[in-house]
Amino acid sequence: MTDNIYIAAPGNLAVSLIAGILGLLFGSFLNVVIYRLPKMMQQDFDNYVAEQNGQDLPHISKFNLMVPRSACPHCGHAISALENIPVISYLVLHGRCISCKHLISKRYPIVELVTAFISAALIWHFGSGLAGAASLVFAYFIIAMALIDFDTQLLPDDLTLPLMWCGLIINTQGVFCSLEQAVWGAIAGYLSLWLVYWIFKFITGKEGMGYGDFKLLAALGAWCGWTVLPAIILFSSLAGAIIGLLLIWITKRGRNVPMPFGPYLAIAGLIALPFGDTITRAYLTGLQ
Questions:
Q1: What was the pLDDT predicted at 3?
Q2: Which of 213, 235, 260, 273 is within CB 3.0–4.6 Å of 149 for a Cys-Cys bond?
Q3: Model pLDDT for residues 201-225, shown as the tens digit of each residue
Q4: Model confidence over 243-263: pLDDT tens digits?
């Protein structure tokens, strides 16, 4: 990117394969984050409301990303380590709980495999140095946020804000763009969707998106720089149009059913981090 200080060295096949294996493990952890973080947020909110009203706290048992142990939601069977090996355990168990034989969601191994593929691809592109390691952090945050937003139409501040700060910090070293581009990327990313939100609300009287989308685009701007934001907005709009139409066609959902924008921003971000600047340069060159 323009004014880059840091130059990434492409990875090799062996390192990329190792990254893919680690991606399977991180994908398994992301499944926990995706399932538990919204529940943790809801429990904190319920406890806060109860405390403000002088009522007994409705949630007193410890529930976080580490405890209690993962269990079958249907029969309560505690999942052992051997039952929790990414993808392999799912295949060995034929996608069923070992205790009650209830079907396990296919999304768990899919998330693990997608995370593994993205991890290997990013390390292949950026190498195993600082840029490669940072890109994995970026991807894991993005994957978690995309699926949480898909499930709940929420983009937690616990993820969007740390991602934005990580982007600003990593770009103090000019890893993906200059610090100046990163700061203006965060500002422009937030304000662009903020303006769209208020214009849409003024015209229609409805809220077209949530504040989490503003923060996610600000985070993407902090990682990729302001020059890549037009490409991110274009990619996310195209992804939203294509996937949205497919969902309407496959699931027969109504056109008025709200759909989260976060997953499409996430797809655009995963494209823009490695290729956004190249695509932007090619586009600008074509206009000359």
A1: 45
A2: 260
A3: 888 877 777 889 999 999 999 999 9
A4: 878 877 777 666 666 678 999
